[in-house]
Specification:
Blueprint: E1 3-9, H1 15-24, E2 32-39, E3 42-49, H2 52-58, E4 68-74, E5 89-90, E6 96-104, H3 107-116, H4 129-138, H5 144-153, E7 157-165, E8 172-177, E9 182-185, E10 189-193, E11 205-208, E12 213-218, E13 221-226, E14 232-233, E15 238-239, H6 255-261, H7 263-270, H8 275-287, E16 290-295, H9 297-314, E17 318-322, H10 323-330, E18 338-344, H11 350-361, E19 365-370, H12 376-380, E20 383-386, H13 399-419, H14 424-459, E21 465-469, H15 472-488, E22 492-496, E23 513-518, H16 524-536, E24 540-546, H17 550-555, E25 558-562, H18 572-589
Parallel strand pairs: 16-17, 16-18, 18-19, 19-20, 21-22, 21-23, 23-24, 24-25
Antiparallel strand pairs: 1-4, 1-10, 2-3, 2-4, 5-6, 6-7, 7-8, 8-12, 9-10, 9-11, 11-15, 12-13, 13-14
The structure holds fructose -6-phosphate.
Residues 296-299, 344-346, 349, 352, 396-397, 482, 486, 603-604 line the site of fructose -6-phosphate.
């Protein structure tokens, strides 16, 4: 999604900070770059399609002066990625500039109205109506803040915007509705950005703007008002507790690899959840007539894993539902007795928030599991828990997947206790195993990385991969496949292994790479049968199995050995790790950047 950074400094120049901030937002995915500054009262804009470093050189953005400005990385939603459609956009007079993340649903009508009033439009974007609406409002001799408020009241849809104008050259106006925006304050100046890591080098004091709020920033700080009625809102800054180092690459070549190796730490943090929130969520889960686990992408895979754990240890039936399908599938039945547990790393995924809105409208109880403090999901949930994985910058979710699963497992265990579904010994055993998870993951990272590198070399030219598992491991297989697909672009399929003979097996040929996730446990005998089916058709078998599992190893062309003694229900956490590493290594061998996969964004905040 688009990245936004704005800043007003006591002493300029502002451009280095804007470019640094945009760089820290690159992970959101983008196709164009643009910067606006006010220099000696004159608004200047330079923008084009392309990556920050290329556009900066091409347009000599480093030479722009001024102590107030803003920058934007655009991820196209309306109009092709080109110079004209890149942000900032201006009003017809060229004195008001706007950058925007989100989608304005009623821009066609607004554009026609503004065209009738004599405004000029040059882009194909929905954003361009915003500066023109502000220009129109300013004709009534009101200031920039009031004109922006009035303009925003005309918009339908989602936005995080920053407005800069030579008419009031000392201030920035910014606002949000559904798309994230965070403010920062320091002695040197005031900032706004799509995400806190962009601001973190300059301050640890941040203010999360909420839906329907507008802020006016100058060198002395910020003033927040409600868009609906202009009333003032007092909000003191929060302290960011994570350091900049925590969100930088340290010695790793990519964020993705750094985050894979961070998992022992993030999982240890995930075991230190605040008890009262876990208890609260457990109580709601226990009360529901039906429980939906609503999410997208990797978070949906966590939910599928969660559904097995809830069922097996707490005897709770849950329905994992892809958030973009939720309204179609269950929108007319969800109601006052339903629990919707929304799982979202960012807490800002449009489809998930839309499903949640619908569920709330029908009086369902919405619970949240997210990694992002201050995110929209935390505000719309009746109760929520933060998974404590720390910022995840790599587009491919890694440590947040394992963290989500760990939280869901803890919820299931609490619920099992509450419902009396496990004996004290069983409860103690699971608890003890959960405490061992970070150590198991550490062992996997230490002991398997070299084998995974060899595996990647062996299979680097394969054109198709199959990922298969039984029971809870079918979800591990799906997540392994998603990692491979999104960062290597290699076509791949994932199925519960028992389902493969109902169709997918038809495309197996000699040497087709089949990755089997096969821990010890209830599904072990069945997965051996599935491996044999594939082997009989010439497939090349890659297994992720327990150390010393000779039956599986004998059938495999390659294997990765995992620590012994992990209960099957907890295997998705350590067993996904070699698959994350495999996807990463294959991307590197193909010369691809795993942190910035094509067409993908870290946080999908548009429909
Ligand atoms: C995959 C990935 C995406 C996200 C999905 C949901 O690696 O990162 O599939 O999992 O966009 O995002 P959240 O969890 O932020 O709602």
């Amino acid at each position: 999604m688009c990245g936004i950074f704005g800043c007003v400094l006591r002493n300029g120049p502002v451009v280095p900070q804007i470019l640094d901030g945009l760089g820290r937002l690159e992970y959101r995915g983008y196709d164009s770059t643009g910067v606006a500054v006010i220099d000696n009262g004159v608004l200047q804009i330079r923008k084009d399609a392309g990556k920050i470093k290329d556009v900066v050189i091409r347009l000599k953005i480093n030479e722009m002066k001024g102590s107030i400005g803003m920058g934007h990385t655009r991820w196209a939603t309306h109009g092709a990625p080109n110079m004209i459609n890149a942000h900032p956009h201006t009003d017809s007079s060229g004195r008001i500039a706007v950058i925007h993340n989100g989608v304005i649903e009623n821009f066609m009508e607004l554009k026609q109205e503004l065209l009738d009033k004599g405004h000029n439009f040059i882009s194909k974007t929905d954003t361009e109506v915003i500066p023109n609406l502000i220009e129109e409002e300013m004709k009534s001799d009101i200031g920039l803040t009031e004109a922006t408020l009035r303009a925003l009241r005309r918009l339908k849809g989602s936005y995080a915007i920053v407005v800069l104008s030579s008419l009031e050259p000392d201030k920035i106006v910014c606002a949000r509705m559904e798309s994230p925006l965070v403010l920062g304050v320091s002695d040197e100046g005031t900032y706004c950005a799509s995400d806190a890591p962009a601001i973190r080098p300059y301050t640890n004091k941040v203010i999360y703007l909420r839906n329907g709020e507008l802020a006016t920033l100058d060198v002395n700080g910020y003033k927040i008002v409600k868009v609906s009625d202009g009333s003032s809102i007092e909000r003191v800054p929060e302290q960011i507790t994570w350091s900049l180092e925590m969100s930088e690459k340290q010695d790793f070549p990519h964020y993705m690899l750094k985050e894979i190796f961070e998992q022992p730490t993030s999982l240890r943090n995930g075991l230190r959840l605040q008890e009262k929130y876990v208890d609260l969520l457990t109580m709601f889960l226990d009360r529901g007539k039906e429980v939906f686990l609503v999410s997208a992408g990797t978070s949906q895979h966590s939910c599928i894993v969660g559904s097995y754990i809830f069922s097996k240890i707490a005897r709770l039936t849950t329905y994992p539902v892809i958030s973009s399908e939720f309204i179609e599938q269950y929108g007319s039945t969800v109601g006052i007795d339903s629990i919707v547990l929304a799982v979202s790393q960012s807490g800002e995924t449009y489809d998930t928030l839309k499903a949640v809105d619908h569920a709330r409208m029908r009086a369902a109880t919405v619970l949240g599991l997210t990694n992002t403090v201050g995110s929209t999901l935390t505000r719309v949930s009746r109760a929520y828990v933060i998974q404590q994985a720390g910022p995840e910058i790599g587009v491919a979710a890694t440590k947040t997947f394992t963290g989500q699963v760990l939280v869901l497992a803890q919820l299931a265990l609490k619920l099992a206790k509450l419902r009396g579904k496990l004996s004290q010994d069983e409860l103690d055993e699971y608890k003890e195993s959960m405490q061992k998870i970070p150590g198991w993951v550490e062992t996997v990272l230490e002991k398997t990385y070299d084998n995974v590198k060899d595996l990647a070399l062996k299979y680097k030219d394969d054109k198709l991969f199959f990922f298969l598992g039984r029971g809870i491991s079918s979800a591990t297989a799906m997540e392994g496949r998603l990692k491979l697909l999104e960062i290597t672009y290699v076509p791949s399929l994932a199925y519960p292994a028992g389902e493969s003979k109902h169709g997918p097996i038809s495309i197996i040929q000699k040497d087709t790479a089949c990755v089997f996730v096969c821990p010890q446990g209830e599904t072990h005998a069945e997965i051996i049968g599935s491996i044999m089916e594939m082997k009989a058709r010439g497939a090349s078998i890659i297994s992720i199995c327990e150390k010393g599992d000779e039956a599986i190893k004998r059938l495999s062309d390659s294997f990765i050995e995992m620590p012994k003694g992990i209960p099957e229900l907890l295997t998705p956490i350590p067993y996904i790790v070699p698959l994350q590493l495999l996807a990463y290594e294959l991307a590197i061998l193909k010369g691809l950047d795993p942190d910035q996969p094509r067409n993908l964004a870290k946080s999908v905040t548009v429909p």
